[in-house]
Each structure stands twice: as C-alpha cells, then as structure tokens.
Design a protein that fits this description.
about 170 residues; alpha+beta; 6 strands; globular
Length: about 170
C-alpha cells in the first residue's frame, strides 16, 4: 500500500520540478509522526488512556436552576483543581495516596464503559444536574434524575465529591 501511495504521489509531481537544495522535490517524503511523551503507561494495562500520556480524570457538574458549571481536574499525581466558573471560584488540593490508587483503578476499569442502566423512570425531570467523567478519550455522563449509568461511574463520582471541593 505504501508503494502504491508513493507511486501516486510521484505521478502528481510536475515533470520539470526543481530538485536542487531547498527546492521542491519529485520524491515525496514520509510525514513526520508525533511521538507521545515518555510515561509509565503501557498499551496493555487495560486503560483507555493512550500510552505515553498521563492519566488525567475530569469530573464535571453542570445545570440546575442556577446554571451551575463546576469542574474538577485530577492529575496523575493526585493533585486536583476545582473550578466553579459561575461563582469565579478555584480551589486546589491533593488526594491521599490510597484514594488516588482507588480512583485510578476505577478510572481504568472496564466498568466505566459498561452499558448504562436506566437513568430515570421517564427521563423527564426539571432543573437537574448533569455529571460527566472524562478519562483519556472516554466520556461518560448522566443526570441526577435517576441512577448513575454504572457502578464505576457512581463510585468515581462519590469519591471525587468526598475528597475534593466538587
């Protein structure tokens, strides 16, 4: 396939193209591939976090009657930053090692992406809060009209509410 792509690109080059130093070349060069930063994460560790990237967990709480907008960003080392954009408030802190390990285990588990349960009897309730959890490229969300979408989501949310300013 690479040979076919190279041949197709070479056919597109103009016949009299300048191939001198610094000028256009009739032979296409391979595109550069960005390498992720070094990290201890391995591709087969069961996480949805891309290898080489830190495990960052983001929990959001939005909505309600007043239009709440709160977010907690938890870094791989357990440090967290809480932001309430509506109130203009920011707080920081750090999770205890045992709580951080518990949170990271939950965040990496397949349970976070388990099929959602029913979130409400009819899904219609007013002025509810919406909760979201982002781990790597996995985003899971629900409202407070009913149950959490799965047990891992419920456990992560409970831990973050207990241990941070959310």
């Amino acid at each position: 396939m690479a040979a076919a792509l190279t041949a197709a690109l070479a056919a597109c080059a103009s016949p009299g193209a300048d191939t001198g130093a610094g000028g256009p070349s009739s032979t296409p060069s391979a595109p550069a591939t960005a390498q992720p930063p070094a990290s201890s994460a391995s591709p087969d560790d069961g996480s949805r976090v891309k290898p080489g990237y830190a495990l960052q967990i983001i929990v959001t709480k939005t909505g309600g009657f007043a239009g709440l907008e709160q977010k907690v960003v938890i870094a791989e080392d357990g440090s967290w930053t809480f932001t309430d954009s509506r109130a203009g408030k920011t707080e920081t802190g750090k999770l205890a090692t045992a709580k951080l390990q518990q949170l990271q285990t939950l965040a990496k588990s397949d349970g976070l992406t388990a099929p959602p349960g029913k979130t409400g009897e009819n899904g219609n309730c007013a002025d509810m809060f919406m909760f979201g959890i982002t781990v790597g490229d996995t985003v899971t969300s629900t409202d407070d009209c009913g149950r959490a979408p799965n047990q891992a989501f419920e456990d992560i949310l409970a831990l973050v509410v207990e241990e941070t300013a959310l």
